[in-house]
Design brief:
Elements: E1 24-26, E2 29-31, E3 37-40, H1 55-65, H2 78-87, E4 95-101, H3 104-119, E5 123-127, H4 136-141, E6 158-161, H5 166-172, E7 177-183, E8 185-186, E9 192-193, H6 198-209, E10 212-216, E11 240-244, E12 255-260, H7 264-268, H8 282-295, H9 298-321, E13 326-333, E14 336-341, H10 344-356, E15 359-360, E16 370-373, H11 381-401
Helix pairs in contact: 1-8, 2-8, 9-11, 10-11
């Protein structure tokens, strides 16, 4: 049973009798054509925050497409405006406007262009072990382990500072820097959470030097950290915010760039900041507005903190019981965590053994020892408990073989 190599999930060792792991999907469960069920700690970075094949999200989507199509992107639309206003309920002041795109990578590209237009500067600063997508400016910012040089020449004017080091950032920025572009939690890097005080210092430095702060919360946002936005843990607000994945509900491709009202004139003048047949389309904007109502419900973040606490505690207990397989540190917050195997080879074997035990987890190309847990936000306490049991079963399999 082969799983997409981008997940760094090796071929399992044979306990599944089926070939198509995601033959059926429901909630946090994947079922192959033989009927074997696997619980998934991987939800495509948040695409399936509300679970696989979510009936309530499908109902929202069907209601939307039953009344209108995508519409003409270049003409003002009341449905697009309504979706933008509904999404704004998730945004802290001064963020209030949102430019919707067909994916988060595209939203990041628009953000970089907007930063250059607002500031009149041409430079961008990103961070080591960062990942923002696989196109344009995002590709030029990706960590080398993600293979951006394969597609050289890359977009120019991009520099990298060491993630977590304000001294490195200060030395990397100059008078040409339009924006500092960071993930609040570096998910593809193996779940690197921004150190305490770091983002506040980044915010201060950007303000001092006239640069904008662009935060990528494509994976960390929308309640994943236990708050609607992960930057809320750091007491700051960015100038530009990129999100996506969780806005799709698993049914419609979507990305979003949010910014303050004072910047909106730069979006439309002297020419449109971005031209795309599906930018700001009515279907995507309507879906974002509908799902924003769900993310705004305080019960969702409360649930994430409760079951996330169970997951973190359980992973730490397993790591302490099996120090020959796992390091003791568990990184993350909310419902996004990683634990490191003792080495890269052991990590690959553990991911395969977990799959044999009925649990899908992923690894990290940038940090190969990592085993990452990022399940749908709607996972129940009982399902977290089952996930931990299956993970420890995979660990025990390795210990037996060793």
């Amino acid at each position: 049973m082969n799983v997409d190599s981008e997940l760094h999930t090796p071929t399992a060792t044979g306990k599944s009798s089926g070939h198509w792991l995601q033959h059926k999907r429901s909630g946090v469960w994947l079922t192959d054509e033989s009927g074997r069920e696997v619980i998934s700690a991987f939800c495509s970075g948040g695409v399936f925050n509300f679970g696989f094949n979510a009936e309530d999200v499908r109902a929202e989507m069907l209601a939307i497409v039953s009344t209108h199509d995508a519409g003409l992107w270049a003409i003002p639309s009341e449905r697009r405006n309504e979706g933008e206003q509904q999404f704004a309920r998730l945004l802290p002041p001064p963020l209030s406007r949102t430019f919707f795109t067909s994916c988060a990578g595209e939203a990041f590209e628009v953000a970089c262009k907007l930063a250059k237009r607002i500031t009149g500067r041409g430079g961008l600063v990103s961070a080591t072990q960062g990942y923002h997508g696989h196109i344009g400016f995002a590709l030029a910012m990706d960590d080398d382990t993600m293979g951006p040089q394969e597609f050289a020449p890359l977009a120019g004017g991009v520099r990298r500072a060491v993630f977590g080091s304000i001294d490195s950032l200060a030395a990397t920025m100059d008078e040409t820097t339009a924006a500092v572009c960071l993930e609040t939690i570096q998910a593809p890097a193996g779940i690197n959470v921004a150190p305490v005080g770091y983002l506040a210092e980044v915010r201060r430095l950007c303000d001092e030097r006239g640069a904008l702060l662009l935060l990528d919360e494509v994976q960390a946002g929308l309640c994943r950290s236990g708050r609607i936005w992960a930057f809320e843990h750091h007491g700051i607000v960015p100038d530009l915010l990129v999100t996506g994945k969780g806005l799709t509900g698993g049914f419609y491709p979507l990305g979003a760039l949010s910014y303050a009202e004072r910047h909106h004139r730069y979006v439309v003048k002297p020419t449109s900041i971005h031209i795309s047949s599906y930018a700001g389309n009515e279907i995507g904007a309507s879906l974002a507005g509908a799902l924003a109502r769900r993310y705004a419900d305080p019960a969702l973040c409360q649930h994430v903190l409760a079951v996330g606490g169970m997951l973190a505690l359980g992973l730490r207990d397993i790591a302490q019981r099996h120090p020959d397989v796992l390091h003791a540190e568990v990184r993350g917050q909310g419902l996004i965590y990683a634990v490191d195997a003792r080495d890269k080879s052991l990590s690959s074997r553990l991911i395969a053994a977990s799959l044999d035990a009925g649990l899908l987890v992923r690894g990290s190309r940038m940090h190969p020892p990592a085993v990452v847990f990022q399940p749908p936000l709607v996972i129940s306490a009982a399902e977290v408990d089952e996930m931990l049991k299956r993970f420890e079963a995979g660990v025990l399999t390795l210990r037996t073989k060793n």
